[in-house]
Write a structure and sequence with these properties.
about 80 residues; about 75% helix; mainly alpha
């Protein structure tokens, strides 16, 4: 399949490959299309719930209710081993 990218999009994707985010232009294009597909598959209700969860996390952090990430990961590891 042949596709044509706008110069701005091609430049953006080539920069991401050069930065090492992707191994190839093909991989960058597939990842980008995957993001678009995921975005279109998420309902507004699900997006609202995700945004509410993110805001709760921000509010908790601002209130000082935070945990050490390494301790949390150790607990998860222990739970599922």
């Amino acid at each position: 399949m042949d596709i044509s990218l706008s110069p701005n999009i091609e430049r953006f994707l080539r920069i991401k490959v050069a930065e090492g985010l992707y191994d190839s232009l093909n991989e960058a294009i597939n990842a980008t299309l995957g993001i678009v597909l995921t975005k279109e598959c998420i309902s507004q209700e699900e997006l609202d719930m995700l945004n509410a969860d993110i805001q709760k996390g921000i509010d908790d952090a601002n209130a000082g209710n935070i945990s050490d990430a390494f301790e949390f990961l150790d607990e998860l590891k222990a739970k599922y081993e």
